[in-house]
């Protein structure tokens, strides 16, 4: 009878046990870790247990940079409609406002052959007008009360709207005496450079704040006629 050393006998028993388990396991069963009782043998990386559950990688969130509406709207205007100091020859005194209706520009006369030029929105077909008026009142974040003529044309309009960012008159308004017209801001800056209003003259909120700070009550306002449009109210009384 052959005698195996004690250590060799234990190894042989282990090998026989492993073979028996392997034969008894179904072919499609998950394979156990090799030699789980022999810690000195390295385990394949794919079979090593995870210390924690895998983290699902979510798509990175795109965070829009905060924007100031007034600054961004001005930046989006075409170059010709952006506020700028330009050469402008006129005999009118400094502080006078001249509205160039056909070219959708408003000039604030500085004197010395210069003026601040703003891009504006003006009256649509049938609602342009011309004449000489004066600023009789100024208001910050003005309330809006549509005149009866406007309500007759657009019955869905509110009868009164408190001032604020959603108000059509925008951040500032300068009222033109003897008319229902105003020079005012707008919460629709895309209308600057167009003929869209019911006769009022609109600027971006940033530009109307700048103009408002320059203009005094009593300032002269000259509105030039729109010679390219046949329908010119001309009397300053349309709504």
What would you note in describing this structure?
This protein has 239 residues and is of the alpha/beta class. Helices cover 18% and strands 21% of the residues. It has four helices and eleven strands. The protein has helices spanning 6-24, 69-75, 148-153, 205-214, and strands spanning 84-87, 97-100, 105-111, 114-119, 122-123, 131-140, 172-176, 182-184, 195-197, 201-202, 220-223. A hairpin with a 5-residue loop joins strand 7 and strand 8 (182-184). Mean pLDDT is 76; it is low at 4-74 and 230-239.
Keyword list:
alpha/beta; 4 helices; L,D-transpeptidase catalytic domain-like; 239 residues
User: What oligomeric state best describes the polypeptide chains here?
Assistant: single chain
Average per-residue pLDDT, rounded, comes to: 76
Straight-line N-to-C gap: 123 Å
| Biggest sheet overview | 9 strands, mixed
Report the helical percentage. Answer: 10-25%
Main sheet strand line-up: 1-4-3-2-11-6-7-8-10
Tell me what portion of residues adopts beta-strand conformation. Answer: 15-25%
- Computed over alpha carbons, the radius of gyration is 40 Å
Which CATH first-tier class of the domain at 72-223 would you pick? Answer: Mainly Beta
Do you know the CATH topology of the domain at 72-223? L,D-transpeptidase catalytic domain-like
Total strands: the figure is 11
Content-based structural category: alpha/beta
């Amino acid at each position: 009878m052959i005698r195996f050393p004690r250590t060799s006998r234990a190894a042989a028993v282990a090998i026989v046990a492993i073979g028996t388990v392997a034969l008894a396991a179904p072919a499609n069963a998950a394979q156990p870790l090799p030699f789980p009782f022999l810690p000195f043998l390295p385990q394949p990386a794919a079979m090593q247990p995870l210390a924690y559950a895998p983290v699902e990688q979510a798509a990175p969130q795109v965070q829009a940079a905060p924007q100031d509406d007034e600054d961004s709207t001005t930046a989006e205007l075409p170059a010709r409609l952006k506020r700028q100091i330009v050469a402008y020859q006129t005999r009118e005194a400094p502080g006078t406002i001249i509205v160039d209706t056909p070219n959708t520009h408003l000039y604030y006369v500085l004197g010395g052959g210069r003026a601040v030029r703003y891009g504006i929105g003006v009256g649509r077909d049938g609602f342009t007008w011309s004449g000489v008026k004066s600023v009789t009142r100024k208001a910050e974040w003005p309330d809006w009360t549509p005149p009866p003529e406007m309500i007759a044309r657009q019955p869905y309009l509110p009868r009164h709207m408190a001032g604020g960012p959603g108000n059509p008159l925008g951040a500032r308004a300068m009222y033109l005496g003897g008319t229902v017209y105003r020079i005012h801001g707008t919460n629709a800056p895309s209308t600057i450079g167009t003929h869209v209003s019911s006769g009022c003259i609109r600027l971006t909120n940033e530009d109307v704040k700048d103009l408002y700070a320059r203009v005094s009550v009593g300032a002269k306002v000259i509105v030039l006629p729109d010679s390219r449009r046949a329908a010119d109210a001309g009397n300053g009384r349309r709504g």
